[in-house]
Amino acid sequence: MEPSASQSPGQSIRRSILIVLLPFAAGYTLSYVFRTVNAVLAPHLVRDIGLSAADLGLITAAYFLAFAAFQVPLGLLIDRFNPSRVQGILLMSAGLGALVFAWGEQRETLILGRAMIGLGVAGGLMASLKAIVLWFPRQRLPLFNGLFLAFGGLGAMAATVPVEVALGVTDWRGVYVVLGLATFASAVLVFFLVPTRPMDPPSGGPLKQFRDLGHVYRDRLFWRIAPVCVVTPGTTMAIQGLWAGPWLRDVAGLDRAAVANHLFIMAVAMTVGFAITALLTDILYRRFAIRPITVLGCGLVALLLVQAGVVAELISIVMLLWISFGALASFISLSFAILSQHFPAEYSGRANTGLNVMVFSCSFGAQYAIGAIIDVWPPLADGNYQPEAYQAAFGTMLVIEVTALLWFFAAGHLLPAKQR
To answer: Cα(255)–Cα(263) distance, rounded to whole angstroms?
Structure first.
């Protein structure tokens, strides 16, 4: 099922989009639904199961913990085996995890379900990025990576207003059942539709593959971008995936429908942001030789300024804040394209998963830590959390992000020119 030699480059790319990018995108879209859906379902989970803020953060963050734990093995697998086979098998775990969560009655069962989901969608991005490396021109990786990531925004959109509407027909358990069935269908699609692509497997066995991770973790460019490209996406995913919804309710004073609408608009902004970031980065590099790492730095500065506005509780421009938050979060995706271009193709899976394991470990810690900090302040009489609690929690994460950003800029002067 290789593209014919008679096909033009344009025809080959269009075919790859249809039979590779779109099937992988279906699974990635669902992974983002799972990642963010609890921002809308949070009040129902708290009411039906009786959860504290820390419990809610822990249950939702179990997704991130399992996701992170599997990143290193995932990198070994997708560098050795066809990513479509790896992804198809993993998605079955996510489907089963959704059903376990739907039938859960206790905190521990819900944690298990979310962990199974996290394991199952662990390859949603990394296996897809490996497939893009195999099927698309290397110099266009920032473009196709960014366009692919826009499908995650579609998933975040589906987890907002559509879920709120669905709750008028079913409950949170029914939502998870539907998601589980859709994930099973996506697994079949990826496994059987995406063709295999000849790969040059890494030399040596799995043990050598694991030792070769040292090549990634000793790389200076990796450690220039890693701190800020770990704590910033970790924080933004923790906020968007859960705490943005309660913040809009408790700090901005919005009702359920308005919260869902704001989350939906933020997801739209993120979707558009991924596409614009991809196109902008491609144009800036091809026409003006402005490197992706420069674009990344500018985007991170703007994102943290917006987060500072959230911490300052600028309620008068609340919609603008969250639109900007969603749109600017897309710049973080450039880190994966930078690593894919920097390392040889046979290392691309391990390089990206080497970063991603830290990103999702941070997401787990941030989502739980925000809940734990919020719990320091006693809830209000109506059960809502105090605005000061959010300010302390979000502010703590922002300080850590700013510190990492300062290292990003400082390291650019410390590294050899070819690695900056």
So the answer is: 12
State the amino acid at position 355 in one-letter form: L
Give the contacts of 118 (CB within 8 A, at least 6 positions apart): 62, 63, 64, 65, 66, 67, 70, 97, 360
The pair of three-digit structure tokens given for residue 97, joined into one six-digit string? 């995890």
Q: Do residues 327 and 104 touch, judged by C-beta distance below 8 A?
A: no
Q: Is residue 2 part of a domain?
A: no
Q: What is the CATH number of the domain that holds 163?
A: 1.20.1250.20
Number of domains in the chain: 1
Tell me the C-alpha to C-alpha distance, in Å, between residue 361 and each of 31, 343, 407.
17, 23, 20
From the list 367, 369, 370, 362, the residue with the least C-alpha distance to 391 is: 370
Chain centroid, CA 14 distance in Å: 26
A 10 A CB-CB count for 291 gives 17
User: Residue 129 in contact with residue 18, Cβ under 8 Å?
Assistant: no
Which of 360-384 are b and which e, b meaning 16 or more Cβ less than 10 Å from the residue's Cβ?
Answer: bbbbbbbbbbbbebbbebeeeeeee
Q: Is residue 105 part of a domain?
A: yes
Q: What is the pLDDT of residues 302-351, one digit of tens each?
A: 999 999 999 999 999 999 999 999 999 989 888 888 887 888 766 766 77
Look up residue 138 and give its two tokens.
């290397």
Structural domain boundaries, residue 405: 10-194+210-419
Q: Look at residue 53 and give its three-state secondary structure.
A: helix
Model pLDDT for residues 380-389, shown as the tens digit of each residue = 887 789 999 9
> Positive or negative, the Cα torsion across 273, 311, 54, 251?
negative
In a domain, 200, yes or no: no
Backbone φ, ψ for residue 375 (5° rounding): -70, -15
- Residue at 4 is within a domain: no
Task: Please tell me whether residue 259 adopts helix, strand or coil conformation.
Answer: helix
pTM of the model: 0.72
Query: What digits encode the pLDDT tens for the residues 62-107?
Result: 888 888 888 878 877 877 778 888 899 999 999 999 999 999 888 8
C-alpha neighbours within 13 Å on the C-beta side of residue 238: 33
CA 258: distance to chain centroid?
A: 24
Q: Would you say 261 and 157 are in contact if contact means Cβ atoms under 8 Å apart?
A: no
Compute the residue count for the chain. Answer: 420
